[in-house]
Design goal:
Layout: E1 2-6, H1 14-29, E2 33-38, E3 46-47, E4 58-62, E5 66-67, H2 69-79, E6 82-86, H3 95-100, E7 103-106, H4 109-114, E8 123-125, E9 147-152, H5 157-160, H6 164-170, E10 173-178, E11 185-186, H7 192-197, E12 201-204, H8 211-214, H9 219-225, E13 231-233, H10 237-251, E14 261-262, H11 266-275, H12 279-293, H13 299-315
Parallel strand pairs: 1-2, 1-4, 3-5, 4-6, 6-7, 7-8, 9-10, 9-12, 10-11, 12-13, 13-14
Length: about 325
C-alpha cells in the first residue's frame, strides 16, 4: 500500500504537522510506504503543482481542495487511485472533493453532523494524536504564584485577552503563547511542551457561537491534558463530549476527579480558577486528565486506526488500476 500526501502547509501549521508530517513519519517507521507529494512553504488550500502519482495507491488531500486539485483528483479516479480528503476545520467550498473522495476523514462529531447527508456514509472520525513523548509530563505542582497559560493560533489571541483582568483580580500570573505578534511568548514546536509544564493551569476560551469553533476537535485540550495540566475550557461540542465521557470515569472511581473544567460565563471562569488554586486540587485534576488521554490519543493508537481505514480502501481499490507514466 503506497500512500501519498498533499499537505496544506509546512510543519509550523498545526494541522499539517499533526495530521500530515507526524502520521507520514509514523507510517514509514512502521513499515508502510508513505510519501509527501506536496509540501507548500506557507498555508494554502490550493495545489499549484502536478505531483508525481506513479506507484501511488491512495492519495490524501489534507485540507487542500483548490487550484489543480480537481484535475489531479480526476486523474486519480480514472487511474483507480483512491482519494481521501482529510479535513479537521470547517471550510466552505469543499463540495467537489467531498463528492469525489472515496473516504472523508474528520475529527469531530459536530463537524460530521454539519456536513451534507450525501457525504455521511463515507465520513469517518479519526482523532488527532498528541505530539509530546508519552513519558513527558508535569510532576511538581507546587508554586509561589499560580501561573495560567493560554496557547493557540493568532486568531484566538483577542478572545484570550478577555480573561486577563480576571487573572489580575485573582492575583494569578497570565501568559499567552501564540504566533500572534502581541503574544507574551512566541509558539515554538520544540518549546511548547515545557512551556505548558511550567504553567499551573491552561485556559482555552473560545467564541462558541462560530461554526468554525463548534467544529473544532479536542486536540489542543488533549495536548495539555497529557502533560498533566489542569485545564479550563469553553463549552465547544468536542470538549463537552469529552467531559461527559471522562466524568463517567470519575463517577466509576477510575480517576480521582473530573479531568477538566468547563466555563460557560465569566463567573464560571472565576469559580474554576479559584477551585484550581490549591496545589492538591491542581495535582488531582492534572493527574486524572493525563490518565484519561495518554493511551487513547497517542500516535500509535491513531496511526493504527489510520492504517485500518486506508487498508480497507486499498483492499477495495479498482483491480483495473492503470499505471501512470
Amino acid at each position: 500500500m503506497n500512500i501519498g500526501w498533499i499537505l496544506c502547509g509546512p510543519r509550523d501549521i498545526p494541522s499539517a504537522r499533526i495530521e500530515g508530517y507526524n502520521l507520514h513519519k509514523w507510517l514509514n517507521c512502521h513499515d508502510h510506504n508513505s510519501k509527501l507529494l506536496y509540501t507548500p512553504s506557507a498555508f494554502t488550500h490550493g495545489l499549484d503543482e502536478f505531483p508525481l502519482l506513479k506507484g501511488i495507491d491512495i492519495i490524501i488531500f489534507q485540507k487542500v481542495f483548490q487550484g489543480n486539485t480537481p484535475y489531479v483528483v480526476n486523474i486519480c479516479k480514472e487511474s483507480g487511485i483512491k482519494v481521501v480528503y482529510y479535513i479537521t476545520d470547517w471550510i466552505s467550498g469543499f463540495d467537489f472533493i467531498c463528492q469525489s473522495a472515496d473516504l472523508i476523514i474528520i475529527s469531530s462529531d459536530f463537524m460530521k453532523s454539519s456536513m451534507k447527508k450525501e457525504y455521511q456514509n463515507k465520513i469517518v472520525i479519526l482523532k488527532d494524536a498528541y505530539e509530546t513523548p508519552k513519558d513527558l509530563y508535569k510532576h511538581d505542582y507546587s508554586t509561589d504564584k499560580v501561573k495560567v497559560t493560554w496557547y493557540g493560533r493568532e486568531y484566538g489571541y483577542e478572545v484570550s485577552q478577555n480573561l486577563r483582568p480576571l487573572m489580575e483580580d485573582l492575583g494569578y500570573g497570565y501568559k499567552t503563547i501564540s504566533n500572534h505578534l502581541k503574544s507574551d511568548k512566541q509558539w515554538g514546536e520544540e518549546t511548547i511542551a515545557q512551556d505548558l509544564i511550567n504553567s499551573d493551569i491552561v485556559v482555552l476560551p473560545y467564541n462558541i457561537d462560530l461554526i468554525s469553533n463548534k467544529c473544532k476537535d479536542e486536540n489542543k485540550l488533549v495536548q495539555a491534558m497529557v502533560l498533566g495540566l489542569p485545564c479550563i475550557v469553553s463549552a465547544l461540542p468536542s470538549y463537552v463530549e469529552l467531559h461527559e465521557k471522562y466524568v463517567s470515569y470519575y463517577s466509576e472511581g477510575i480517576i480521582n476527579s473530573e479531568p477538566f473544567f468547563i466555563a460557560n460565563n465569566l463567573e464560571g471562569w472565576k469559580n474554576s480558577l479559584v477551585s484550581l488554586g490549591p496545589k492538591e486540587t491542581r495535582k488531582m485534576v492534572g493527574e486524572s486528565a493525563r490518565e484519561c488521554v495518554k493511551d487513547a490519543y497517542n500516535i500509535d493508537t491513531i496511526g493504527t486506526q489510520l492504517v485500518s481505514l486506508l487498508g480497507g480502501l486499498y483492499d477495495n481499490r479498482k483491480e483495473s488500476k492503470s499505471e501512470i507514466d
